[in-house]
Amino acid sequence: MKVLKYMLIFIPISFVAKFINASPSIIFILSCLSIIPLAGLMGEGTEEISFYSGPKIGGFLNGTFGNATELIISFFALKEGLFEIVKSSIAGSVIGNILLVVGASMLAGGLKYKTQYFNQKVVEVSSTMLLFAVIGLCIPALFTHTVNPNMLNTRYEGLSIFVAIVMISIYALSLFFSFSTHKDLCSSVHEHEGNAKWSLKKSILILVISTILIAIESEFLVTGIEPITESLGWSEFFVGIILIPIIGNVAEHSTAIVMALKNKMDVALEIAIGSSLQIILFVAPVLIFLSLIFTPMSIVFNEFELIALIATVLIANSVSHDGESNWLEGIQLLAVYLIIAASFFIL
Amino acid sequence: MKVLKYMLIFIPISFVAKFINASPSIIFILSCLSIIPLAGLMGEGTEEISFYSGPKIGGFLNGTFGNATELIISFFALKEGLFEIVKSSIAGSVIGNILLVVGASMLAGGLKYKTQYFNQKVVEVSSTMLLFAVIGLCIPALFTHTVNPNMLNTRYEGLSIFVAIVMISIYALSLFFSFSTHKDLCSSVHEHEGNAKWSLKKSILILVISTILIAIESEFLVTGIEPITESLGWSEFFVGIILIPIIGNVAEHSTAIVMALKNKMDVALEIAIGSSLQIILFVAPVLIFLSLIFTPMSIVFNEFELIALIATVLIANSVSHDGESNWLEGIQLLAVYLIIAASFFIL
Amino acid sequence: MKVLKYMLIFIPISFVAKFINASPSIIFILSCLSIIPLAGLMGEGTEEISFYSGPKIGGFLNGTFGNATELIISFFALKEGLFEIVKSSIAGSVIGNILLVVGASMLAGGLKYKTQYFNQKVVEVSSTMLLFAVIGLCIPALFTHTVNPNMLNTRYEGLSIFVAIVMISIYALSLFFSFSTHKDLCSSVHEHEGNAKWSLKKSILILVISTILIAIESEFLVTGIEPITESLGWSEFFVGIILIPIIGNVAEHSTAIVMALKNKMDVALEIAIGSSLQIILFVAPVLIFLSLIFTPMSIVFNEFELIALIATVLIANSVSHDGESNWLEGIQLLAVYLIIAASFFIL
């Protein structure tokens, strides 16, 4: 993905724009364009470090830093009290991973190969886990929407923290599961091919610098959300559900598509479903805990996010039972994504 | 299905009834009884023409004219502004195909054979596609019902047209998929056995005449809907969800049951799921486009239709994963249909 | 499960407490503790009698008396007009069977064996049947919640009776299915190992005495529900969804876990799914019929129960497609149960 590297030029441009007090909408767009290659760089840095650290710690690093960009953006949104953006970008990451990434992978792969096969068993394990995780995450919201909305804030904070503790415990247990008791089941995705590209020192340096730059650009981005939604007439949900997840995941997404083009549909699916699981089991609880520093955020999705999440997870389960994919299946996933995006756009 | 032929006698009777100004309820019933054999005749005509036109055009004709009766009835209902009837007959066709037709096929076949097997892979492809299509079709409605109902009509028309374009594009792509890139996967249903029964000329003549007669009877039927719902105390939804789909599909349904009795459960399932797909991907978008001539209809199902549609598609997916069927499974599908019908009846 | 026998001591203690007019909360707790071993004893009695009566009648007895404890408790709750408790304990039994029992079985079994395999086909048949049953049971409720809530009571009683007749007919047909046309499919669960422990006379005596004692203790329990919910601040739903189903099923649940520890995951799953099916197809309709003696109860679950039921049945279907289980899957099921319980607790 060499083309991403050239996008690093947007970092200095965004700094200049900030310095000359350009309009917040322009800074928003520039920071989006800067974060895309930085997220890719951070991913590469993590991958390289995991090379030196051995498979166990490497797997843990890959697993935990995989969605670091979204975590950083959401942290700054949280600080600004933009709860709706934070929650919709959690939902949007899952939706984007399953519908957009899997859809694009199946379409791209399906144009090259007539039918692509994947290991049904392995994908089913992940997609069943995703079903559990989404149901667990959505139950407090589903309960909340059927009660008098005025009594929400009082008792549901406690429930959110409880759910967050359950989720992060399952995340810890699932890491133990993959790296200890059942490591044979889970080794396919992050096997390293070839040699390390960078030295350990260089890798750590790249990781640290890209993290710092992402943090700065995220603050630019978050400050620009309100002005851009107002000036363009976009709904806040659209920014959270569609835009932020795409920005944070372009690098990761392109890897999935590359894997599909190499006829490794298993890996493409594992990246997409694995990343979704991480969002729900790790990123969402961490954000709930972090929110306690500022104003406690309850993990109550709105009805649109719930509908989109549940539809997505049903589709993920249906796709994984299949064991096969073709271009038409890819297009259908993309079509559902388009319809969801259009619905959020007109909200 | 020779017994259907005798029902053609209801056509002249319905004309006489109209001529002598009989009560609209009687004309409604007579037009229902007339459409049943006409729909069968139109199906046969299409089948015969596809014999002469070769598999590609034949498959296209069969695919596109398969739900012509419902399209014609809905067109006249649309003209009269009976949007609720149109939308509920779209939902009712899918529900009837999956629960009533598959249920009756599994029951009939299961009474003859202890366990019937079908090619899981092929049926799963269709039922996954059905899941996508139903979710895509339902998302605007699901979003709508959670927003202030007063803001519906303004922005949702545009969304309906967008969804219609997406759906019909997928329909076109799926025809290309079945007749070009993956024709090996999709050949089982419409293979011709034996020779043509009629000459090409006679087939076209029958097709044209039956289409014209269906159009006339549909107008009789639509005019009678309001009087009959009033005089019998039926809900409009009951007519749309249960009655119209049955009338338009008796001939097709009987084919599915005949196939089940021949132990060709694959074909029976493909007829039912394929017909449902056609309704969603072709009939529904065409009706939305046609409605632009009169008053634009937004594709927003009511909550009952949504519940029944989503329940149906979950059942279709569950049944197809199985790969087997027996009489008890058939009865269970019929039981869910009965409960849905009873619920709409008392609305 | 010898430890359960020692709990029989709570029966005389509860009688003494009632006699000395102890606080209703204490009597509630003592009656709960008494019912647990009595339910186990009744189960054993039924099992022993089925030994003497041959497989057909034995299977019928086991099937029909399997949830007798819940039926008795619900009968007394019905008599007191505690409809919400009755309905939530129906929903809670299904939820508890699938999430708590299957979860605990998979966790216990998974700690002993790395991966446990089960016959996917057999479990899929039951879980598909469970999906149908839950959808059928929930449709009237789903319809009801979207209509004006004031018109509920008038017409929905008739619908409830209709649904009850459909459900109990399917129950009768499914018994015919298992013991007549497809008995080869369904023999795995209740095969007897070894010899009878008790004589037929003693078995009948134990069954009769335990049934009488359960009836008395159930009346104690029901009388204590209101005082205990008030004094502890628990919601009525929590008692119905979580507490009553656990009390009525401890003995049965422990059998499932014992089977999982013997690496017979098929049997563990069949016990849990079979018991859920029985609740929906037999216990729920019988309670609706019984309610006609007192005040007719409509089978309209509230939104929380619906959400929890539908989530549970989707999870059951996902788990059964898998064909494998491990400790992490068990923990995930328990986590969803915990989140549901916590949500009902704070209601």
From TrEMBL, chains A, B, C:
GO terms for cellular component: endomembrane system; membrane. It is a multi-pass membrane protein. Keywords: Antiport, Calcium, Calcium transport, Ion transport, Membrane, Transmembrane, Transmembrane helix, Transport. InterPro entries: CaH_exchang, CAX-like, NaCa_Exmemb, NCX_ion-bd_dom_sf. It holds the Pfam family Na_Ca_ex. The keyword Phosphoprotein does not apply. Residues 26-179, 203-343 form the Sodium/calcium exchanger membrane region domain. Gene3D superfamilies: NCX, central ion-binding region. GO terms for molecular function: calcium:proton antiporter activity. It is found in: Endomembrane system. It comes from the Bacteria. PROSITE patterns: PROKAR_LIPOPROTEIN. Signal peptide: none annotated. One of its GO terms (biological process) is intracellular calcium ion homeostasis. The chain crosses the membrane at residues 6-36, 57-78, 90-110, 122-143, 158-179, 204-225, 237-261, 268-293, 299-320, 327-346. The keyword Membrane applies. Ca(+)/H(+) antiporter that extrudes calcium in exchange for external protons. Belongs to the Ca(2+):cation antiporter (CaCA) (TC 2.A.19) family. This is Ca(2+)/H(+) antiporter. The gene is cax.
